[in-house]
Structure formats: C-alpha cells, structure tokens
Amino acid sequence: GADNDCNGFPDDGLTFTHYWVDGDGDGFGSGTAVAFCADPGAPWVLVFGDCSEGSPDSHPGAPELCDGADNDCDGLPDDGLTTTPYWVDSDGDGFGAGLAALFCADPGQPWVLVAGDCADGSPDYYPGAPELCDGADNDCDGIPDDGLSFTHYWVDSDGDGFGSGTAGAFCADPGVPWVLVFGDCSEGSPDSHPGAPELCGGADNDCDGIPDDGLTFTPYWVDADGDGFGSATTGSRFCADPGVPWVPVGGDCHDGNTAYYPTAPEICDNADNDCDGVPDDGLAFTPYWVDADGDGFGGGTATTFCENPGSPWTTVSGDCHDGSLDTWPGALELCDGLDNDCNGRIDDGGACG
Q: Which pLDDT band holds residue 1 (cuts at 50, 70, 90)?
C-alpha cells in the first residue's frame, strides 16, 4: 500500500484480485468486492455468492436442508426436498382440519398427517370416533347420532307418568317432561290417565272413553222451596251429592210452597198437603147446612167441612122454611099460615085463637 518505486503511485504495476467478506466461514463471501494485490486473509475470500451471510449452511452448492432457508442459494428455499401435507389439529385428537400446509419434515404439534376432523375444537369429534348421543356428528360421517338405538318418548305435562301428543325419538332418556308411556287422555290433569281410579266429576279419569263409568249413581231432585223434598218431575242421577237445590228425596207435589211435601201435616185447605193424592185426608169433617135467613137453623142438603166455613153455614138443620126468621124448629107458632115451629102443622096450638 506504499509507493515503493517512488513514482507517485502506490502498488502500481501489481496484479489486484477481488475479495469478498465471508462472515460465516463457509468459503463464500458477499457484499461489495474489494481489490487486493495480496491475499488479505480471513474473513476475505475469493468466491462470491453467499445468499445468507451468517449461516455456514447456506452458500452456493450447499445441500438443501429442510429449514425453510435457501441453503444452495438458488433462490428457492427447501427446493428438491420431499414435502408432505400436514393439517392443524387444534383439539389434540390426532385429526386435523382446514387447509393443508406442505412440510419437508414433521413440523410437530399442532400439525398432523391426517385430515377430516369435522369439529376441530372438540376431542370427541373425528373420523372413526364413537358416536355419542348428543345430537352431533361425532364420527364425522355427516350423520348425527347414527348407529345408536332410538326410543319413542311422549310429553307428560301433568306428571302422571303418561304422555300424549306426537312422539319424539331419543337415543337417551331426555328426562322431564318426557315419558315412555303413551295414552293420557287429559294432559293437564294428574287424575286422568289409563288405569286411574274413576272419580265423580264428569271426567274420563281412566281414559276408557266413558266419563264416571263404574261409579254408583243416586237419583236427586230439585227442591225449589227448601222443604227437603224435590219435585216429582225434575230429577237427575249423580255419583256424588250435587248440593243445593238438589235433594235425594222426591215426591213434592207442589215444589214452590213449603206446606206441600210427603208426610206434611194435612191442613184443612182443600189441598193435598201430604202429596198422597187426596186433599184434606185424615181430617175430621162436620156436616153444615145453609142458614139463609140467619135464624140459626139451616135447611136443604148438608155439606161436610173440616173447619167452620162461617156464615151462612150452621151445624143445626131442620129449618122448614129457610127464608123466614119466624120459622125454625121450636119457634113460636104464629097465625100466619106457616108452620113456624116446623112440626109439620100450620098455625097449630091455637095460634089463630
């Protein structure tokens, strides 16, 4: 680097050769060439072309390694190596999903060699997995719960153990409100289901299609007047006491008046109080005669009454001229051309002198 021949030009007339810096010691340099008239030694080398100055495994002619780098510096990383597709296995079940990526060596987790996971987030889902009763496609064949045994269940809304409506098929017991037995005819009443005891209420408790069947029915009648006896014409049968105004005894012949019913005391009113069909029966009747002239004695034909009918009736008969106050049995005989004393003789006893 000095002007040895003092001609004003250092190192003139010498041969200069280009050298490059070889930073990784692989024998290949890179960067800007520098001309030397003698070998400058390390790190300078005579060969240019290192594409990764810093890695001794990367230089022209180097064997391509599976490391994602361009080891032979031909511009293509990992060229000439055998690559295999791998898929991401997010749930660790050994099966991947999504798009495949090519690797020249096993990339390790989460990459796997087998694709086909239909739910890569759950370890229970992969090709060949046992099908679970969960409504999902565990074995990834496109059919949820296939190969499992399904049983029919019905909704039991009233908790009596019997369902109704449309059956649902389940591969496991779905729990409340589903049951295995169908046939509830009144879904909403726990007292109504096949085999239930028949209750008196107008419902078909045992679901045989007949309400209140097998129960004992008793006749009741409407008691409109509250005397304990119902109308002889308004009756019905009940399996339980229907309450007011119904009573279990009929026969009231006038259900609107408390004085009329079977066993009622007979009143002298020309009515059938005891409902036996005979008015005023059992009462004492007395004969009365019409006393038209008010003299206390009646005439004509007697009529019987169970109580005093009042004027003009009297209990004494014998008036032979019931139109004259002067004529009755025992009256004073007058000289008037009449039989005043009703003895059958006119003006007798010297009435006329």
A: confident
Sheet holding 313-314, edge to edge: 299-305, 286-290, 313-314
| Tokens linked to 263 | 């066993």
Tokens of 172: 């496991």
Q: pLDDT of 165-190, one tens digit each?
A: 999 999 999 999 999 999 999 999 99
DSSP code at position 108: -
Give the span between the Cα atoms of 76 and 100, in whole angstroms: 20
Parallel, antiparallel, or unpaired: how do β-strands 17-21 and 44-45 relate?
A: antiparallel
Instruction: Assign 111 to helix, strand or coil.
Output: strand
**What per-residue confidence (pLDDT) applies to 302?**
95
Query: Which residues fall within 8 angstroms of residue 265, CB to CB, at 6 or more apart?
Result: 273, 274
Rounded distance between C-alpha atoms, residue 227 and residue 274, angstroms: 12
Sign of the four-CA dihedral 82, 85, 88, 92: negative
Please list the residues that pair with 236 across neighbouring strands: 220
**121: its two tokens:** 């987030």
Q: Does the global pTM surpass 0.85?
A: no
Owner of token pair 């020309």? 270
**pLDDT tens for residues 252-268?**
999 989 999 999 999 99
**Which residues, other chains included, contact 105 with Cβ-Cβ below 8 Å and sequence gap of 6+?**
66
Contact indicator for 82, 43 with CB cutoff of 8 Å:
no
CB atoms within 10 A of CB 71: 26
List b or e across 324-333, with b for residues whose CB sees 16 or more CB atoms inside 10 angstroms.
beebbbebeb
Quick check: 216 and 237 in contact, CB under 8 A? no
On whether the CB atoms of residues 329 and 341 are closer than 8 A, the answer is: yes
d(C-alpha 211, C-alpha 220), whole Å: 19
Query: Alpha-carbon distance 55 to 36, whole Å?
Result: 25
Three-class secondary structure assignment of 122-182: CCCCCCCCCCCCCCCCCCCCCCCCCCCCCEEEEECCCCCCCEEEEEEEECCCCCCCEECCE
